[in-house]
Design goal:
- By secondary structure, the chain is α+β, with helices and mostly antiparallel strands.
- The chain has three domains: 171 residues, no CATH class; 61 residues, no CATH class; 105 residues.
- 31% of the residues lie in helices and 18% in strands.
- Strands 1, 2, 3, 4, 5, 6, 7, 8 and 9 form a nine-stranded antiparallel beta sheet that branches.
- Helix 1 packs antiparallel against helix 2 and helix 10 runs antiparallel to helix 12.
- The longest helix has 20 residues.
- It binds heme C (7 copies).
């Protein structure tokens, strides 16, 4: 964490960050404003890239196929994580391949995405007017939802409808509920500003965002090795006698919980980002670094509560709740200090089923595991 962010958190977050900032009013308003500016400055100073904002990036990208030659273990398991396919050109998209005709209507608007010999045209009609575009990219692998991006007059647009796994069909894209279309073009999709497009591609692809630029001439689909480890050019070039020069690639082993939050949070959103953007209510359950930081279990210097304690960054998360028990009992066991206070009297296994309850993000048709680990009693309000 940069000194500036540390200061920001000390002033604005009061240490562990359990302060709930209300709406912008009175002195809090000023504080929120001051805090917001310093975070943005800290991010800009560091160059703006996702993981680039944590550790400086040097050298050039070589692509994950190169890494796979010498690191087969990670390369073999990584495709099981949906991160590896977080964005794909529509012609490689499995969801569309399996659903060659997707139709849906919303009031007067009838939507259709249909496979043709030339690609996937996406149309909307209200009976009188029709708008159409060829889909280019699929964002998200449909664990929750999948949204499409197309281009018109050199601008990027986000489809107004998305595919949801739960529904096995289309529904409004998250956020579209609040934006009734004023015309047929708006019913087709929302224009994404160039700054927003840079961020979308930055989090869902590799090497498309270079500093403040978005470039789509040379990049990799999805989150790949060099998104987290940084450009590998120097690492690969430095290998002689089978040994790379030390320090040429981000090692990432043994990071503390706080450092890991910064790495993963560059896309999954940090505590600071969620505070700054004032994302309240169950909409913020999908921002795991934010939720985890708020949990009493979060000890910032301890790697036993880092994202990587529970998740292999090179594989899909384990779905058997028992797989996480040992992660909890690494701290909650009778040998550790003050243990008596911290041992469960209710059950001795499947801890996450009770202490990480699931909440649906409005409009997402998916219930996310709440990473604010706690005693959650039925009827308790959602903690923010
Ligand atoms: C020509 C073979 C080769 C290629 C290609 C290669 N690596 Fe490595 N890498 C190595 C070797 C050898 C080591 C040292 C392994 C060891 O000491 O166990 C290493 C170490 C690492 C480490 C640990 C670093 C450390 O300080 O211990 C990471 C992370 C890593 N490589 C990632 C990558 C990524 C990401 C790519 C693709 C951009 C890549 N490597 C491409 C051979 C390669
Ligand atoms: C460059 C951006 C980026 C970074 C950095 C990143 N993630 Fe992700 N992650 C994503 C995106 C985007 C998705 C959603 C992929 C999808 O479903 O399309 C995702 C999905 C996931 C999933 C769900 C995978 C599945 O198969 O269900 C886990 C778990 C995860 N990330 C953990 C991590 C951890 C742990 C770290 C840090 C070590 C991390 N991520 C860093 C972008 C990122
Ligand atoms: C700051 C990084 C970031 C940006 C910017 C971003 N995403 Fe994501 N996106 C993620 C992560 C992380 C996930 C996985 C966790 C989740 O589902 O919330 C994700 C998930 C998704 C999903 C799967 C739905 C879901 O909730 O699982 C879709 C679709 C998606 N993003 C589309 C987009 C589009 C389109 C844009 C640009 C308009 C965009 N994203 C911008 C990080 C980002
Ligand atoms: C989402 C972020 C992320 C992605 C993507 C990612 N890694 Fe890693 N990688 C990590 C982290 C975090 C660690 C340290 C894990 C730990 O603490 O054991 C790591 C560790 C490693 C190591 C060192 C392993 C060891 O035990 O010495 C190698 C080698 C490596 N990764 C290669 C790769 C390759 C190759 C890819 C692409 C297939 C890749 N990584 C993709 C985050 C990532
Ligand atoms: C104490 C263990 C634990 C820690 C620490 C942890 N997770 Fe998780 N995470 C889980 C469990 C359990 C699941 C649910 C897996 C399943 O059954 O699909 C999960 C699921 C996820 C998912 C899939 C979204 C969903 O809810 O369906 C993402 C993304 C994710 N974690 C990211 C992270 C990130 C980023 C961090 C670090 C800030 C992190 N996790 C830390 C236990 C943990
Ligand atoms: C890094 C160590 C660590 C890990 C790993 C950890 N915890 Fe904790 N947990 C703590 C600490 C410290 C507290 C605060 C204890 C206190 O207040 O005395 C705590 C508190 C709790 C509480 C009480 C919270 C409250 O709101 O009163 C529950 C429930 C809990 N942990 C469950 C879990 C579960 C379930 C897991 C695994 C998913 C887990 N913990 C993993 C350290 C940890
Ligand atoms: C069936 C649901 C359930 C499961 C499974 C479960 N717990 Fe609990 N746990 C609870 C409830 C309910 C409480 C609150 C008990 C009370 O206050 O009387 C609790 C309390 C706790 C506390 C706080 C204790 C205190 O004295 O403040 C910790 C820590 C904890 N559990 C950890 C765990 C761990 C670790 C596991 C897995 C080994 C686990 N729990 C499994 C329901 C569960």
């Amino acid at each position: 964490m940069s000194d500036m962010r540390r200061t920001w958190r000390a002033v604005c977050g009061i240490g562990a960050g359990r302060v709930i900032m209300g709406p912008m009013r009175g002195r809090w308003g000023v504080l929120v404003l001051v805090c917001g500016v310093s975070v943005l400055r800290a991010q800009n100073m560091a160059g703006g890239g996702a993981s680039a904002s944590i550790w400086p990036v040097q050298g050039h990208y070589v692509g994950s196929a190169r890494c796979a030659v010498c690191h087969p273990a990670q390369a073999r398991t990584y495709p099981s994580s949906s991160m590896s396919v977080a964005m794909e050109p529509v012609e490689h998209c499995e969801v569309l391949e399996r659903n060659s005709r997707l139709a849906w209507s919303d009031g007067p608007y009838r939507y259709l995405i249909e496979k043709t010999a030339t690609g996937y045209p996406y149309t909307v009609t209200d009976g009188t007017n029709t708008a159409e575009a060829m889909l280019l990219y699929a964002f998200g692998q449909g664990k929750a939802g999948q949204t499409y991006v197309y281009q018109k007059d050199g601008q990027y647009y986000e489809s107004r409808v998305s595919y949801y796994k739960e529904l096995k069909g289309l529904d409004l894209t998250m956020g579209a509920q609040n934006r009734p279309p004023a015309n047929i073009e708006q019913a087709l999709g929302r224009r994404i500003t160039s700054a927003e497009a840079r961020e979308c591609f930055g989090c869902h692809t590799t090497a498309a965002r270079r500093g403040n630029e978005l470039q789509l001439q040379q990049f990799e689909n999805g989150v790949q090795c060099e998104d987290c480890h940084g450009p590998g050019g120097e690492h690969v070039a430095s290998i002689s006698d089978g040994h790379p020069k030390p320090g040429t690639i981000r090692n990432l082993k043994g990071l503390t919980a706080e450092e890991t939050n910064d790495l993963c949070g560059s896309c999954h959103r940090t505590w600071e980002t969620v505070m700054l953007l004032q994302i309240r209510g169950t909409a913020n359950v999908r921002f795991q670094p934010y939720r985890l930081t708020n949990s009493k279990c979060f000890l910032s210097g301890d790697s036993r509560i880092a994202c990587t304690a529970c998740h292999d960054p090179h594989a899909a998360p384990q779905t058997d709740p028992k797989a996480y028990d040992a992660k909890c009992t690494a701290c909650h066991n009778s040998e550790t200090a003050a243990a008596a206070k911290k041992i469960c009297k209710v059950a001795s296994q499947k801890c996450v089923t009770c202490h990480m309850p699931r909440f649906e993000v409005p409009g997402s048709h998916h219930a996310f595991f709440d990473h604010w680990i706690r005693v959650a009693r039925a009827g308790d309000p959602y903690p923010n």
